[in-house]
Write a structure and sequence with these properties.
This protein is of the alpha/beta class. It is built from ten helices and six strands. It has a six-stranded parallel beta sheet with strand order 2-1-3-4-5-6, sandwiched between helices.
């Protein structure tokens, strides 16, 4: 029996139940003591506070808060949290942003099953893990900073952009991030200027092309 993940409690966060089931079986088969599930960024934060897992495995693109915003909020309260971010996309800017926000690892969902086990194991030991297929493009993106138009946004602008691109209102975003509506409006102005977009529909298209949200 594979016991590489023995004695580990893992919090698995993905909005697709079938994906969670497959990953859960894989992690349990590798010896994980407990696999706890959450279906959103909001649920991940709540379950993390309740269970304090050894590793949080979380999809970057989910409805609601989303994985990236949840990561930022989690790290602000739990700076030593070990987080492995997952994505269905192969873009370079998402892993750069996730690592900058405090993730210890980043993995594409297209990876072979054994890569997930390897990534969780390394992250549980406080070791950085980058999907081998993304490592070169991530390194280049970190050097050039121009892998995606959204790379021009500040971290706070990116979080606001992701929420607005999913159809949330300025007031909803202000409430989520404990900001005033006028502050969110200022971020929105800068986002439009930097991305050369004029409305929410165009922001959504940029987010889709960048792999930040799913169609």
């Amino acid at each position: 029996m594979n016991t590489v993940l023995k004695n580990l409690t893992i919090l698995l966060t993905d909005d697709h139940a079938l994906v969670r089931m497959g990953f859960r079986l894989l992690l349990e088969g590798a010896g994980a003591t407990q696999v706890i599930e959450a279906d959103s960024g909001e649920a991940a934060l709540s379950r993390y506070d309740e269970t304090h897992p050894d590793v949080l495995v979380m999809d970057i693109s989910m409805p609601g808060m989303g994985g990236l915003a949840a990561l930022v909020r989690l790290r602000s309260h739990h700076p030593t949290a070990r987080v492995l971010m997952l994505s269905a996309y192969h873009d370079a800017i998402s892993p750069v942003r996730a690592l900058k926000a405090g993730a210890m690892g980043y993995l594409s969902k297209r990876c072979p099953p054994e890569e997930l086990v390897k990534a969780v194991h390394q992250v549980s030991r406080d070791q950085r893990y980058i999907d081998p297929e993304l490592a070169q493009s991530v390194a280049l993106a970190q050097l050039t900073g121009d892998a995606d138009p959204a790379s021009t946004l500040t971290d706070k602008e990116l979080l606001v952009f992701l929420q607005l691109a999913q159809g949330r209102s300025v007031n909803q975003v202000a409430l989520d991030f404990h900001l005033s509506p006028s502050t969110v409006g200022t971020h929105l102005y800068h986002i439009k200027q930097k991305l050369n977009v004029h409305n929410a529909a165009e922001m959504t298209m940029v987010a889709l092309r960048g792999g930040f949200i799913e169609a």
